[in-house]
Structure formats: C-alpha cells, structure tokens
Amino acid sequence: MSKKIRLIRKRRVCKIRGCEQILSIYNPEGYCHAHQQFAMTQSLPPQPVLKH
Length: 52
Ligand SMILES: [Zn+2]
Fold this sequence. Notes:
Elements: H1 33-43
C-alpha cells in the first residue's frame, strides 16, 4: 500500500570535478563538506604558503 516518498528529486553531487560526494538537500552551496572550505578559500585572497 505504501508508496515510496520521493524526497530527493534530483541527486546533486559536489561541484568539484571528480568529486562524487552526494550533497545534502539542505546544502545550498553545491560543494561537499570537504570542498566547502576549499571553495571558500578560493574566494579569499591568497594566503601565504606555510613552510614546513
Ligand atoms: Zn567535494
């Protein structure tokens, strides 16, 4: 009797090429958790490279 409820209309994945991390429907950014910070740093001025 019970039909499957389609909550996920379209499966979204991370915008980063090669990254197939499935995004949460509550994630408006378009990047997975790992790449979200990466994407944020891209919009910021370049930071000095720390020497190890
Ligand atoms: Zn990603």
